[in-house]
Structure formats: C-alpha cells, structure tokens
Design a protein that fits this description.
By secondary structure, the protein is an alpha/beta fold. Helix content is 39%, strand content 13%. It has helices spanning 11-19, 40-45, 62-78, 89-97, 119-125, 154-166, 177-186, 210-218, 239-253, 273-277, 300-309, 314-332; strands at 23-27, 50-57, 83-85, 101-108, 128-132, 169-171, 191-193, 222-225, 258-260. Strands 1, 2, 3, 4, 5, 6, 7, 8 and 9 form a nine-stranded parallel sheet that branches. The protein is globular, with a radius of gyration of 18 Å.
Length: 334
C-alpha cells in the first residue's frame, strides 16, 4: 500500500487517510473478463482498504452475473498477496493491517435473480454483500429512476425479506423514488444509497431528493456520494463537486449518514452497438453525450484534505471516508 508520500495533500491529511479504514462502496466494473480487475492496485495504492465490485446489472443477462462472480473469485485467489475476498468485517480490518485491499461484490438490479428470491442466498455465499432493485428501468422487483415511478412489487418485497434474513444490504441507488421509500420502510435493516448524489445540487434523474436522503438517514442508513461526472455538477468529474455533495448531505442529515461510493471507471469505453441496443437504460434526454468522466480512486486523499480544510473534525472525516459504511456492514452482514 502507498505510504502517502505521493499524495498531493498535507501530512495531517495523509496521516489521517493512512490510519482510517477507507471504504469505497461501489466500483463500476463492466465485466468482460476477469482481467478488468488488474486495475485494483490503483485502489490499494490510493490508500483504500475496501471496495465493493460490481458483478452484474440489469442491462446484461443474469447468467453473466454468475460467470463474473466465478471468474472474479478465481482472479482474487490468484492475487492473494494483495487482494482479499472478505467474508465478514473482521476480514476487512485484517486486510488493512496486512496492507491488502479487501473486496466484496454488489449487483445492480434484481434481474440477476432470474425471478427466484432463493438466488439471494446463493449470491451471498458467492460474496455479494449488497444489491439494488432496478438499474434505471423497471423490472420484476420494482421501479428504476428513468421509468414510471412504481413501487416495490410483491417479488421485490419478498426479496427484501430474504436479503434481511441472509444479511445482504438493501441498496436503493438507481431506483425510482417510490421504490426507494418503500424499501426503506419495509427493510428491518438499514438501507443504503451506495452511489447517489443530491438532486437539489444537480438536477439529474439519477440523483436523489432531500426526502430520500432524510428517510435513509432516519432509518439508520448511509448515502454514498458518487464520482460520476454527469451526476456531480457543471465541471464534471472533479473532487470539488464531490465534496459539495458531501457537505450538502452532512448539513441535511449529519456526518454519520454520509459515505462515498465513487463508481470509478478506469478505462471508459466509447459508445458502441451494445450501448445503443440498450439505449432505454440511458434515455437521450438524460444522457445526451458520452459524459464528463469519473473521479478516480486517487482522489480519496484529496477529499480528506478538502473536508479538513472546510473545518470537519477528524472523527467525522473518518466516518465519511469509511467508518459509516463499515458500521452498516457490522450491523447487517451475517
């Protein structure tokens, strides 16, 4: 792991970042082959201790999610000197002490269940620790943010109960407003937005409203601010906007309910036939161009510096960069 000497921050910020448990709650890996994980060293070098790796989403067939999990697990076993597949939170703390990056998996959309709530238990066994309902468009479980604002379906409610039973975190990023609010109310465990920004600051349908932020926090959950440039502000993928969204949410619900799910894409691909064939997931009005990039993992120490410069106390910074999501995992994972 990096000793922090190359980070463009003060020694105080570097020391805090080194010492804290740093948690990135979502990495946007589009599975094609397991070698896409070769870039994980960038997270480790940036002083990040844990990353949730996306293993599937509604745009792709559910069988590809299973294939991705199989191939990712094999890749991780082959790189055990630097990466650890965490079963529980103790594994994450142990990985940090050993200078390794701890990872688990997440799924964006319940089409990966193939209509079978029993798949939740299988995915949990394979290392999936959080799952959201619908990736932008409606599906068998509930509503997506770029579709009719429907709530949870009976199948979606069944899945929530099963996620609560096995210890998988309920995630409501990418979901319709009503779906997110109903899931927060139904779940017996805290619910998260793994990677969503404040719509009040930047008016995009993928961003979330104040009442969603407040409901999530009131139920004990955490909102992860994301580094997708399109969802940040006029300058795109800059740490400055990321910190503005953090600051806004902290003012709204307090520092204990804010985290980071950067959704960094290391090597974004240009639009192609696959994208165009699935265009409904990214409506033209909301995605008129190729976007404005992604904040990269190396920005984490910069965010620490920016929060300190804004007068945040060190304990609050520790919570935002990792402690708050760590707390949710301690409460929910089994």
């Amino acid at each position: 792991m990096s000793d922090g000497k190359a980070w463009p921050v003060s020694e105080r910020a570097a020391a805090l970042h080194r010492d804290a448990l740093v948690w990135d709650d979502h990495g946007g890996f589009g599975y094609s082959k397991a070698s896409v994980l070769d870039c994980l060293e960038r997270w480790r070098r940036a002083g990040i201790d844990y990353l949730s790796i996306n293993a599937g989403y509604d745009v792709k067939p559910w069988t590809l999610t299973v294939e991705a999990l199989s191939q990712y697990r094999q890749w991780i076993r082959a790189h055990a000197d630097t990466v650890v597949l965490a079963d529980g939170v103790a594994d994450i703390r142990r990985a940090k002490a050993d200078g390794k990056l701890a990872v688990t998996f997440d799924i964006e959309g319940m089409d990966s269940l193939n209509g079978d709530a029993g798949m939740v238990d299988l995915y949990y066994t394979l290392g999936v620790r959080q799952m959201l309902f619908a990736y932008n468009r409606n599906n068998l479980a509930g509503g997506g943010c770029h579709d009719a604002d429907v709530g949870l379906t009976p199948f979606g409610r069944e899945v929530v109960r099963e996620m609560n039973r096995v210890g998988m975190i309920v995630d409501v990023s990418h979901c319709a407003h009503r779906t997110s609010m109903e899931a927060i109310e139904l779940s017996t465990s805290p619910v998260i937005f793994s990677h969503s920004n404040a719509r009040r600051l930047w008016d995009h349908e993928r961003n979330i409203r104040d009442d969603q932020i407040k409901s999530c926090a009131a139920a004990g959950g955490v909102i992860g601010v994301t580094g997708v440039g399109r969802f940040l502000g006029p300058k795109g993928a800059v740490a400055e906007h990321l910190v503005e969204h953090i600051d806004y949410m902290v003012e709204l619900v307090g520092p204990a309910h804010v985290g980071i799910g950067m959704d960094s894409v290391i090597d974004p691909k240009p639009r192609g036939p696959v994208y165009e064939a699935s265009r409904a997931y990214w409506p033209e009005a909301q995605y008129p161009d190729s976007g404005s990039g992604y904040v990269q993992p190396e920005a984490f120490p910069v965010v620490v510096q920016a929060l300190l410069d804004r007068g945040y106390g060190e304990d609050d910074v520790r919570g935002i960069i990792g402690g708050n999501f760590h707390r949710i995992a301690e409460q929910v994972w089994k």
